[in-house]
Amino acid sequence: MEMMKRKKLLGLVAVTFTVVLILWLATRFYPRKHAAKPVLKGAELSQTLPKLNGPVEEPEPVLAEHSGSVRIVSEPDGANIQVHHGDQTEELTTPAEIKDLRFTGSETELAVKISKAGYIAEERYFLILEEKPDAEIKIAMVAAANGLLNVQAIPWGQVGVDQKDHLKETPLIGQSLKPGSHTIFVHQPGTNKSVQTTISVAPSQQLLCVANFSGEPVLNCR
Domain tally for the chain? Predict the structure, then answer.
């Protein structure tokens, strides 16, 4: 009887020892096998990502459009101007103002052709900055040198330049004319015949006009 009790006690001790051993082993090794993966942030995360082959293209910056205005004046005023800006061309007379001038980026370019009778025609380029979108352009024109006119009549006549009231006897020598268009009128009082023509005088140009009344009146200039 006593022997039976001892065997039961030893069996209980063995079972208890086995359970304790299993629990100890479970708490020691299970967390290592199933440990939670650390959460990566910021630079740590970027270091773990795979690198792409070749350079990474950055997007091109998009330039916003802005608008301004420019006033163009000339000395003297009343000049004819042709202004090209962007994809637009405007024909104006000074003083003139161009509104809604478009900027793409920090600047825009104007091409200005200017002309006026008696002055040298020219083309100029101007750069308008976005930081000063409301600008003023002043153009001082250069006076053109006058041309010289000589007029003869066959057999004779009276000549007027840009008028018919105060005529001068031919030959007319060295008449100074401003560059531009002029009307030449030649009259012969004896036959009451007259002819006229329009000439274009360039700076420093010398012209000769000959009126011939020997037949049908004709006036040639060269």
Answer: 2
Task: Note down the domain range covering 115.
Answer: 65-140
Structure tokens at 202: 């360039």
Cβ neighbourhood burial of 192 (10 Å; 0-12, 13-18, 19+): exposed
In the sheet that holds 206-212, the strands lie side by side as 172-177, 147-154, 206-212, 218-221
Same domain, 128 and 96: yes
Measured CA to CA, the distance from residue 186 to residue 209 in angstroms comes to: 10
Classify 118 in phi/psi space as left (phi over 0), alpha (psi -120 to 50) or beta: left
| Co-location of 108 and 73 in the same domain | yes
Contact present, 98 and 122 (Cβ < 8 Å):
no
CATH classification of the domain holding 115: 2.60.40
pLDDT, tens digit, 9 for 90 and up, residues 168-195: 999 999 999 988 899 999 999 989 999 9
Domain boundary among 119, 140, 161: 140
CA distance 77 to 74: 5
Q: What is the pLDDT of residues 124-167, one digit of tens each?
A: 998 888 766 678 899 999 888 999 999 999 999 999 999 988 89
153 shares its domain with 211:
yes
